[in-house]
Hints:
Helix content is about 40%, strand content about 10%. The protein has about 350 residues and is an alpha/beta fold.
Amino acid sequence: MKNPNRNPTNETGGQPRQTTRSGLGDPFRGGLDLGKPNLGISLCLLGEKVRFNGGHCHNHFVTSVMARYVNWIPVCPEMGAGLGTPREALRLVKREKEVHLEESRTGIDRTVVLHAFCETFLNFLSNKNPHGFILKRKSPSCGMERVPLYREDGHRIGVSEGVFAQNLRKRFPLIPIEEDGRLNDTNLRENFIERIYAYQRWSFFLANDPTPADLVVFHRRHKMQLTAHQPAVAKELGRIVGAAGTGDWQKRVDAYGEMFMHCLEQHAATGKHANVLYHLLGFLKDRMQGEDKREMIHHIEQYRRRHTPLSVPLALLNHHLRRLPHPWVQGQTYLQPYPADLRMGQLLR
């Protein structure tokens, strides 16, 4: 990534100039098609019979809905480590200060072979540019959390993280990772999908040798989306952008990326969404007819009171933007952070 020697500020506000490096242009327009994101997934969730008992854990939402919008990168760590199916069930066992992966019945330690496979697969995954991962819950290899943890004598002593999940998180600390069971919750599912597409855009940004001016564009496009999640963090990100032309550029980018993804992890509450909708309406209200403004306000308030889904005021706002174009508003990723078909249309937040 280029570390510019000049300070790309303008003469009025000390912000990096709004021009972007030739070749990158202004790629973060709302609706930019970056292609399907690449999503890792536990193979059993796709219906493949790779479980320890020879079965599968087919997830209908994953195969019937998400499959149309993502490129799958499937993996079964236990199969990849050569354990076959059916196989002995595995469990996590704490020995002194270390957690081992052992066969439940025989006690054979499979920790080393699982870690070796993880290293090989994650090297492969690095070349696939992953944008997220869906893991099988409570699996001793894939479980993110609440995986049963045992003592050597077989007594359960708590919960831990699966061996593969732990390695995945350490290698790719920013990518969105979720378990299949949590995808049954509408809010968690939509937040996960939102983060997948946000991380895809961030990956695209990083891959194009960005300059401080490009970071200004990226942040500007995401400003309302970030504000809907954590307004204070969105402002802190703005301060990072404002200082992007000074100091260590790589450190600025790393700090921004980490905070950007952290900001989107927090649930976007109804009140914050309503505030963002009112803010965006403010750019149009002087050009709108009185009846149109009242209708827009009515639907925002209906959403705030949880009488209607977020999709209703969003659709109406987009309708008015087609009649009354406003480049800054139309460029906001907030208006369509991911494909519309993946929004379930339920009462959100």
